[in-house]
TrEMBL record:
GO molecular function, one term: electron transfer activity
Transmembrane segments: none
Protein name stated in the entry: Halocyanin domain protein
Region (Disordered) residue spans: 1-38
Record keywords: Copper, Metal-binding
InterPro entries for this protein: BlueCu_1, Cupredoxin
Keyword Transmembrane helix included in the entry's annotation: no
Organism of derivation: Halovivax asiaticus JCM 14624
Name of one Pfam family that matches: Copper-bind
Domain Blue (type 1) copper: 5-67
Length: 68
């Protein structure tokens, strides 16, 4: 994170996604601290759908395709 643009986080919650994420993870509460990072290992092939909780209503979401 750069520390600009407000507080962000990463959430992948299968029940709250349109479609269906194969993973569930959460980086914790939103933060605006410069230099903040979050790493999530993926051990199996699948689809990880995620969003930024504070900006979900404006469409800040994405997907990661994990291939074996």
């Amino acid at each position: 994170m750069t520390g600009r643009g407000g507080a962000h986080n990463v959430e992948a919650e299968p029940d709250g996604q349109i479609g269906g994420s194969d993973y569930e993870f959460n980086s914790g509460g939103p933060t605006a601290a410069s230099g903040t990072t979050y790493e999530q290992p993926f051990d199996d092939a699948g689809l990880a759908l995620y969003h930024c909780e504070p900006y979900l209503s404006v469409g800040m979401k994405g997907a990661i395709v994990i291939e074996s």
